[in-house]
Structures are given as structure tokens and as C-alpha cells.
Amino acid sequence: MAAQKPSVPKGTRDFSPIEMVKRNFIFDTIKDVFKRYGYLPIETPSMENLSTLLGKYGEEGDKLLFKILNSGDYLEKVDKSLSNIDSNKLALQICEKGLRYDLTVPFARFVVQHLNEITFPFKRYQIQPVWRADRPQKGRYREFYQCDVDVIGSNSLLNEVELIQIMDDIFQKLNINTVIKFNNRKILAGISEIIGAPDKIIDITIAIDKLEKIGKKGVYDELIGRGVSSGSVSLLDPILELAGDNFAKLSSLKEILKNSEIGIKGITEVETVLNYFNTLTLKTELEIDLTLARGLNYYTGAIIEVKAKDVEMGSICGGGRYDDLTGVFGLKDVSGVGVSFGADRIYDVMQQLDIFPKEIVSSTKVLFVNFGEKEVRYCLPLLKVMRDNNINSEIYPDSAKMNKQMTYANNKNIPFVLLVGENEMQKGLLTVKNMVSGEQSEIKFDELLQRLNK
Question: How far is Cα 302 from Cα 182, in angstroms, rounded to an integer?
């Protein structure tokens, strides 16, 4: 039999050690900031009951769910008349589970299921993969990681303030120059109201969300195509053309939306959040962007998105306030707010800008050269002391040619190589070769330990 050609499913990928070290740097940075703000980790299963997932992401989202065949004789319960008809209906009879599409719906399910064990407001973070049966293309995968942080069970706008601070902290630590864009669904509802199309809020938000991609004319054409009158569409002009700083935009907006109660409520919420930042310093630019709509239907208040300034890329973080996500699982009127960091896009931005810290690429700091059995016995206790002092170190397993061992150190970006032969053992010294500068020097072990610890 011919050997099978190894491959992975389309839209998935392997990660090499170097890629994993860089990805873990992103995850660890994000996690450290989440913890500093009092968020606790949870995990949910990779698969959920289909009943949990279906109907939460709209018709398009339902089509993108990966469904899992029931174990055993999955055709046993099938209505035989369906087998040649409707694959979606057939799937529901042979699949009870599906891979999760995001972390938000499983989080809502978790909150309701574990209600009695949770302290509200409940602050959680979750870093896990999600799956979407989408058409794979550049930057879009079928399996990818989400890093979510949410607080549920509180209406306070201090939560929005905190999430903006978290985003500011994380992108400063990752050294990515960003702008945080901020809007409110209530303002968008007010806009729909004053242009005389309150029932078209979903259509209006979906179209406005595409402004950057398709331009103003494209947005207007799409809205007319979705049944919004051309008269109503033309009323959007002053809104999409708003200029000035954040408070100037809000001032103009107050005049435009003065007859919309919900619109004014949205403006007040945005103003409240902005006023907190009069006393708090943000290193990141915070910009009100009325074209920011975020397509998801469950947002009810603040909507937030982060863009990298120095790279052409979609948003690298986004989220918002949702007032009744748990309602579908029987827990009504519990408000939450959260954001999701796109680890894959953040990785691509950092790669493109070449801003990963150079030292993280190497896991090993010190390599002991292997000169033979006697030298290995001498080096092993020293190696243990190094590891006990949290210095990542290893010994080459075979007494191979020097050239081979040095190539190994080079390929793994190991900065220091220790040579301990007959001569060094007699003197009680080590020869240290700096692999970056090429310099070589003799040193006592304790002194080397102190230097490496610094």
C-alpha cells in the first residue's frame, strides 16, 4: 500500500515551536492583564448541544456550525423519507452536538447552568479555540482562538471603563499602536428612529458596519436594496459626516437626535464613559465612531472595536454590552459587557511589524556541550543548579562533533554555550561562549549564575 500523504483539514494549521512561543507570549500577556483586573478563568467543552448553539448567530451563523455525528448507529432514528431531501433536517436527526462557534453563547449557558455557584457581578476570562465551517482564505481559518473577557450581572458603566483600560494595557504591553473605537447601539437605534426607519435598525447597522469597505454610496445602495426609502437614507448624511473631537461629535449628535429618547440615552452613556477618562490617562487614542455598528444582533449598549494603526488589518479586538444574552436559557434581564481579543490577527500584526521581543524566541538560555561520559557526570549537577535557579538550560545528549553541537545551539537561538572539558574541570572554571557576539571567556560557576540571574 502506498504511503499516505500527511495533511491537516482545510482551514486548520499546525504551529511550530517558534510560532507557539510567540503565541504563548500573546496569551500570557493578555492573561496577566485579565488577572490584574480581578477576572477568573473558566473553560467550556469544545462541543455543545446543538440546541445551545442553533438560532443564536442568525441564519448565516447556523450554516457555519460544525455538526458532530451521533456515536453508534446514527441512522437508526432517521425518518427514512428525509434521507434524499433536506441535508439540514437530516443533520438535526443524526447530530445532537456541534463544535462551539464562539465563547459568548457557551458563557451564557454556563452562567445559567451554574447560577448558584457564581458570585455576581461575575468576571470571567476564557482563552480557547472556536470552529466555523467558513470558506478558508487569507486570515480566515476554520479553527482559531478567541480570548474573551466579560463581566455579567451589572449595568454599571464602570465595566465599560475597565474594559477600555484592559485594552489600553494589553496593546501597550504588546507594543501595538492602536485606536479604540467606541459607539453605542442606542445611538444607532436613535438614528434609525429619526430617519423614520426604526424597524430597520438591524439592516442599518449591518450596512453602516461596511462603510470602510464599500464607501458611503455602497452603504446607501445596500440600504435602499434592503427597503429603506431614499429619503430616509439621505437623512444619514449629517451623521456619517460628523467631525471634530469626541465631545464636538456628541454635541452635534445631541442636536440631531434631540427628539429620540433612546438616542439621547445612548449619548449620555457614551458621555459618562468619556468623562471618566478626564481623570484617567489612556495611552491609546479613544475615538467615537458612529459608523461602528458590529454586526451581532445581541448588542444593546456600548460597542467597542480596536484597530492597529500601522498595519492594514480588520479589527484585532471588539465587543460590547448585551442586556439579555442569558434570556434564551431562562435567565431574563441580566446585563453583561465583554470584549474578545483576536489572537491570530494580533499575531499577524506583530509578525508584520516585527515587534516580538527577540529573547522570547529562544526557550533555552544555556547549552552544555557534551565532551563525553566523564564531563557529563561533572556537568549534570551544575545543570540541575541552573534549572533550580529558573535558568532554562540543557545538555547535548550525545558526544557529537563540536560543529554539530554548535549548529544545534545556533538553530535554537541559544545565547550561551558552556564548554567544560578536562582543562576546565581541573581549574574549576567554565568556558562561556556568547553565541551572539562570538566572545569566549572563562568564569567561575557561581559568578556565571549571578550574571544569568540578572
Answer: 7
Q: What is the pLDDT of residues 424-452, one digit of tens each?
A: 999 999 999 999 999 999 999 999 999 99
Cell of 346: 494580533
What count of residues does the chain have?
Answer: 454
Lowest mean pLDDT among 96-110, 133-147, 337-351, 439-453: 133-147
Angstrom distance (rounded) from CA 192 to CA 122: 33
Distance CA 67, CA 50 (A): 8
Considering only CA atoms, which of 300, 302, 308 is closest in space to residue 288?
302
Q: Give the C-alpha separation, 43 to 249, whole Å.
A: 41
- Identify the sign of the CA torsion 117, 118, 124, 129: positive
Identify the pLDDT of residue 200.
75
Residue 298 pLDDT class (50, 70, 90 cuts): confident
Cβ-based neighbour number of residue 317 at 10 Å = 27
Residue 68 burial by Cβ neighbours in a 10 Å radius (0-12, 13-18, 19+): middle
β-strand 122-131 against 40-41: which pairing, if any?
parallel
Residue 122 or residue 200, greater confidence:
122
Cell (9 digits) for 158? 464602570
Domains detected in the chain: 362-453 (3.40.50.800)
Q: What does residue 149 show for φ and ψ, rounded to 5 degrees?
A: -135, 125
34 CB-contact burial (10 Å; exposed 0-12 / middle 13-18 / buried 19+): buried
Distance of CA 30 to CAs 42, 282, 350, Å? 15, 18, 14
Q: How far is 52 from 45, CA to CA, in rounded Å?
A: 12
pLDDT given for residue 74 in this prediction = 64
What is the Cα–Cα distance from 147 to 24, expressed in whole angstroms?
Answer: 12
**Residue 161 to residue 284: CA distance in whole angstroms:** 13
> Tell me, what DSSP letter sits at residue 6?
P
Task: Enter the C-alpha cell of residue 363.
Answer: 526557550
Return the C-alpha cell found at 173: 504591553
| Distance from C-alpha of 158 to C-alpha of 120, rounded to nearest angstrom | 15
